[in-house]
Specification:
By secondary structure, the protein is an alpha/beta fold. About 40% of the residues lie in helices and about 15% in strands.
Amino acid sequence: MKSWTDRELKEASLSQLNGVCEELRREIFSTVSECGGHLSSNLGAVELTVALHRVFDFPRDKIVFDVGHQCYAHKLLSGRAEQFHTLRKRGGISGFPKREESEYDCYNTGHAGTAVSAALGLSKARDLNGENFDVIALVGDGAFNNGLIYEALSSLKILNSRILIILNDNGMSISPTVGGMHEILNNLKSSSKDFQADFEGGDPDVRVFERFGLKYMGVVDGNDLKKIVPALSAAKDALKEGSVLLHVTTKKGCGYPFCENAPMETHGVSPSGSAKKEYSAALGEELMALAGKDEKIVAVTAAMTDSLGLRPFFEKYPDRGFDVGICEEHAAVLCASMAAGGMKPYFAIYSTFLQRAFDEIIHDICAQKLPVTFCIDRAGVSGADGETHQGVFDLSFLSMIPNLTVAIPKDIGEFRAMIRRSADFRMPLAIRYPREGTEGEISEVEIGKFEVLHSTMSDIVLLAAGERCLKIAWNVREMMLKAGVDVMIVNARFLRPLDEELLSELKERDIYTIEDNVKIGGLGDAVARFYRQKGLKTRVRSFGFEDGFIPHGTPAELMEEFGLSAKEIAKEIISRTRSRGKE
């Protein structure tokens, strides 16, 4: 598409601007169809983004995208149109704002709820530096459930700075928006016939925002340039006197009817289909079966009912399925308290989002020894969403928590067995797994016991955690056999507790651990610590991700590049084996 400069956008006619919007939609749709990415959220934000570039002066003015997955039009309008075809590809541009990528991206985002805090920090830095520019936080209504938003709003008067919050209200996050704030926003939309710079009548829902120190302006159709451009201009003028909240409505998937009618299904689009089954589907099936036998079982999610396979459960057991919105900390405490009240909660969540509930996992669940089961999806490298979404830290931060059992299934069959085993497990349990996998057989799983998959008299033992790493281990064995060396392969399916009995039996051998996690604090560290504490000099070499953040790319590319290459592992083992043979 044509690269539009900010000056051209400011001088363009309304008809030309509508043409720009159509160009942007076509480019976003065609690129996401090829590369994968967030589709419906970006289609819905096109007119709003064009209007922002028309009214404000980027990059002098600053915009923080909450979550950040709706920034595609912004990237196309800020000098990255020629690179847009590389979206989410290894070495290409990110699907999220990146300061390293462009001066138009002033703050990196990836998780919901951070934009208001970030905007306040940027505006206060501006004030202290004696500078003069506008700072905007573009926040979806789904993120307005997140507690961090209200921590930021509570400090608005204390910090005494000026920001513009644009509330992009499309009634959705990944799943439909829920909760009390959703009701307030719906009331405001039904009370307002058209945009009002000053909402009349002292509406009690408006006073919610005013008490934080915000001037409420709304409601305006964010997909209509004739309305959104003047509304933004009015908000910019009002910003001279203090902070403003501009309430905008948009339609997720706008411009493509099948996206408009299926906003959940088109929120995130894969570049191509997969023949593998998703673990989330198995989770939904197993919880449905367990709930049919035990009325104490409940399922909790934080705005990801469909992505985590829980929709059938919620439909069959509406009184026992709880979507609390983008409130991971609250969800964890809710699970803890329901467990304390005699229920058996299952908290389904992506690995990257579980990080937000770390404190509650420790104090509310594990310290009280409550039987909450964490079903941790997208563990390990998740791929094209990049640094903020790679689930490569969970083994490390979970491994240190007392009273928590941490399980890593070798395939979907073993995952099913673990879920079934969890039904009568009366302590905190975390089961982590990737998005996709192979079905596999269902057999009994004993807590804290590894599984020997290939036994041999070889001195070399591969302890692999999870489906991806076991695949690597088998590939390593094939390569080793060509060099005349066999290896023992062990399914290290529990990080806590470790199988100390088996590890003690292997004390005279060379141990190599493979994990889809950062090396620091993961399986390798735990195994090495076990031998040190026993006073054993067993040689342990760990393979995992090095100390750093992993960018976007396919999981296969990233594992190969960042430390989990079967070829490199086999090469190092052979080299070490030959070196010791010469000693």
